[in-house]
Amino acid sequence: MIPAVSAFMDDDDAGIGVHDDPAAGESTHAPLLPETSLQGRRAPARQKPQPSSSSVLPAIAWTAVLLLALAGLVSYGRPQQRHGGVADPMEDDEVAGAGLAVEVAASRGVVQGVSEKSAGPALLEAGRAFDWTKGMLAWQRTAFHFQPQKNWMNDPNGPLYYKGWYHLFYQWNPDAAVWGNITWGHAVSRDLIHWLHLPLAMVPDHWYDINGVWTGSATTLPDGRIVMLYTGATEEMVQVQLLAEPADPSDPLLLRWAKSEANPILVPPPGVGLSDFRDPTTAWLNPTDSTWRITIGSKNPEHAGLALVYKTTDFVHYDLLPSLLHLVHGTGMWECVDFYPVSTTSRPGGEIGLETSVPPGPGVKHVVKVSLDDDRNDYYAIGTYDAKDDTWTPDDAAIDVGIGLRYDYGRFYASKTFYDPVGRRRVLWGWIVETDSERADILKGWAGLQSVPRTVLMDTKTGSNLLQWPVVEVENLRMRGKSFDGLAVPPGSVVPLDVGKASQLDIEAAFQVHLDSSVAGGAEGAESYNCSASAGAAGRGVLGPFGLLVLADEGLSEQTAVYFYLVKDANGKFTTFFCQDALRSSKANDLDKKVYGSLVPVLDGENLSVRILVDHSIVESFAQGGRTCITSRAYPTKAIYDSARVFLFNNATNVNITAKSLKIWEMNSAYIRPYPSSV
Ligand code: DQQ
């Protein structure tokens, strides 16, 4: 399932050179709704919708979808004109907030029972507010990441596949570009890339969810029915669990949702805080008694994060089980818990994802993921699910959930997976927060992105981490590609790469590190480096940093660096770090700019490899086939539109690097438009 990063790494003898990639050029004309492909790299074959007696849309709805598709066909096949028609920043250099008092409210989340949701007013202290022009702000909107047409978006909710369509719901504020008034936005796709925005799925209209239709998950029952469980914030700001089902199961678009008469189906149990009880998971069948289980995150008075387990047969009545699925001291409130099986055996045709109810046993481990409210990062651990007592034990307690591995070492939160029965894969979405100020969000009129959907698999080579990789359909957006083979990057050098437009890119690079045995190892070894505490790409070490600069201007006054940094210890052992440096990503100061990153496992004989998706204000990076991932935001003021560039760099003092292979594709824009009736 994972596209082989090494597919083009074998041509050892390829000389230094730059050439257009002919295959890449073929995929310019990506599909429109309603089409799908799991092949990647090529425009998929056209596929008609397949209505069956149980899946026939009302005639009007189908007509509307087809009209929309036709309209899209006319406009597609060339990079989309976007950003409100602003083709060049210099066209629109009017200062966006000129003469406008932009009110930034104090924390709303905390008052309403969840934590603060965005970079707060602190970014505006001491007169840091930058004069963003309309052109700069318009450029920040992404081209192939899912985002609503306007306003605030946070967590992905209830992803599912139903009668030919992928459904994505999300936390949305219909009224403003800041968190609040939370409803469920809804969009559908044939291929996880191109989306139709649908009418709101659920709005706060009952006493039990009047303060917010919060996060939830979908379960597909064996007979095909969909059950949606979600959290409601009541009139009294109590967190309760709620049940909804499609009002018309024959509608593949699932336009209308019926909230259960039995709501609320769960209230906080004794001993659980009224605002510490949220985000029910997808249900799984316990094999010991063939009844359903769900888990819900919470915390105890000692500040341990924990996951409660409930048993149900009908999704209306529930029993709280005596044991917790898991608890970790000191981790605080667990939001958006996710729990799913992964296959630990490698298969000749490629690894596959597992459906949520696949029971524990040989070749199956279970992942627990939690979103830590304390630090707003998503942590996971791999372990064993004991179905007899509904408990889970991590493989390695030293990297237990909440204290060890993260899905992403940048900005990635409140994520959720679902099992895609068509692709036989587990797909992950995460909410990518803004790192600009709320003032800028209000000026630009939107805030929040979803990551590209990622397949999630066990890394059967290391046996100790997951692999995340953009779903293969992303490759259908690749247009003109360029290959650069065997480029030498000596210490202290910056190598420009002529790739044309550089705001929408898919980059795959493999580096050879020419290690000289005379390089002395440091006494502290791996302890001596920490991406976040370092000076980033500007800090020179013996064996790093080296990698790529994206969203850089010609003079390198703005740049986002994606890089490796090697450390050799006194015993000659190497440790590899993978980092992303946003410190110099923009000249503007009203931004939260950091260096992100962590260790990345590199096995004997492996090159260092990275895939980078650049999409305007987001840079998503995957090292070593997705063992370590970093997503950061960038809001350049100069490196935008035609001024965005890409460079290789090596800021190490004592190591020669060869970019053994490097491919860079310009990416088309995804087709993300409203469903006609929803405007
Ligand atoms: N977002 C939702 C909550 C969840 C939090 C509210 C995580 O249900 O815990 O918008 O970002």
Automatic annotation (TrEMBL):
A cellular-component GO term for this protein: vacuole
Start and end residues of each Glycosyl hydrolase family 32 N-terminal domain: 145-470
Listed EC numbers: 3.2.1.153
CDD domains, per the entry: GH32_Fruct1-like
Superkingdom of source: Eukaryota
Residues covered by the Beta-fructofuranosidase N-terminal domain: 29-137
Gene Ontology terms for molecular function: beta-fructofuranosidase activity; fructan beta-(2,1)-fructosidase activity
An example Gene Ontology biological process: carbohydrate metabolic process
Coiled-coil blocks: none
Domain Glycosyl hydrolase family 32 C-terminal positions: 500-666
Keyword Nucleotidyltransferase listed: no
Annotated keywords: Disulfide bond, Glycoprotein, Glycosidase, Hydrolase, Signal, Vacuole
Residue numbers spanned by region Disordered: 11-32
SUPFAM superfamilies the record matches: Arabinanase/levansucrase/invertase (SSF75005), Concanavalin A-like lectins/glucanases (SSF49899)
Reaction equation(s) it catalyzes: Hydrolysis of terminal, non-reducing (2->1)-linked beta-D-fructofuranose residues in fructans
Pfam families assigned to the protein according to its UniProt record, in alphabetical order: Glyco_hydro_32C, Glyco_hydro_32N, INV_N
Places the protein is found: Vacuole
Family label: Belongs to the glycosyl hydrolase 32 family.
Name of this protein: fructan beta-(2,1)-fructosidase
Organismal lineage: Eukaryota, Viridiplantae, Streptophyta, Embryophyta, Tracheophyta
Annotated gene: LOC100845254
